[in-house]
Amino acid sequence: MKYRVLLSNDDGILAAGIRTLYDEISRIAQVTIVAPTSECSGIGHAISLFNNLTLEEKKIDGKIWGYGLAGTPADCVKFAITKLMKEPPHLVISGINRGQNTGNSILYSGTVAAAIEGLMFGIPSMAVSLVAIEDAPVDYGYAAKLTTRIAALILEKGLPEGILLNINIPNLPEEEIRGVVISKQGRSTYTDYFEPRGEHEGLPAFRNVGGEMLSSAGDEDYDDIVLAQNKISITPLRFDLTHHDLRMDIDRWMRQNIQDELFELAKPKTKPPR
């Protein structure tokens, strides 16, 4: 096969979502899996700097199926691209994650972080999540087939530079899904509740057990609102956090209100392209 695909996730190497996706996408590409040895949900884009990362081969019938790395999702993608793979992948896919990654949760997501790491290497990348609540029956089959269709398109056509796709799929039979929306990151967020957990090593201990998700308000193209309509949400994301449209305005405001020659010297000469 002429295409190489790297799979990772934040649910762990033994998660059902990544195995189902592997079985499907192996039909169109040579697949390498490097995923955390344990669940890393909510770990964001953390990387390991001061601890050893052990690597464990995962085999089925004596054949290596994937690799478990004792690190974060970002670690896994870094390691795969720089150390494990002889040639870089043509596409990085993170998922299929259990539970949606929308709104503010995108910033916490290890699933999205793994895709961003691929993008940082200049490789087209996508993050895929199935909107399944805890203890609900889950079928990754349709999500894996849809992901493979989109992956085939990206492998053939590519993606715009600096852009990854964050895909969220309702946990519904295919016939109940009402369409696809190229959405935008919403404003949804989870409430936090820190539950007392007695003492740990003589100090009071707490655990964030979370609460309800506060939905976005207003725009029907927000990712979480799209999902509530039983539609697939595909959001193009970038990791450049610069608000380019405001650079000139902030520069002018600073120089008008802070009389200092350093601010005059710092004036941007031209408005940068977006």
SSE order and pairing:
Elements: E1 4-8, H1 16-25, E2 30-36, E3 55-60, E4 63-69, H2 73-84, E5 91-98, H3 110-120, E6 125-131, H4 141-157, E7 164-170, E8 180-182, E9 189-190, E10 194-200, E11 203-208, E12 213-214, H5 223-228, E13 232-237, H6 247-257, H7 261-265
Parallel strand pairs: 1-2, 1-5, 2-4, 5-6, 6-7, 8-13
Antiparallel strand pairs: 3-4, 7-13, 9-12, 10-11
Helix pairs in contact: 1-4, 2-3
State the separation between the terminal residues, measured CA to CA: 36 Å
**Could you please say which CATH topology of the largest domain applies here?**
Stationary-phase Survival Protein Sure Homolog, Chain: A
**Total tally of structural domains:** 2
Could you give a short account of the major beta sheet? 9 strands, mixed
Radius of gyration: 21 Å
Number of strands: 13
Q: What is the topology, as strand order, of the major beta sheet? A: 3-4-2-1-5-6-7-13-8
What is the CATH superfamily label of the largest domain? Survival protein SurE-like phosphatase/nucleotidase
Q: Quick one: overall form?
A: globular
Which CATH first-tier class of the largest domain would you pick? Answer: Alpha Beta
Q: Can you give the mean pLDDT?
A: 92
Structural class by secondary-structure content: alpha/beta
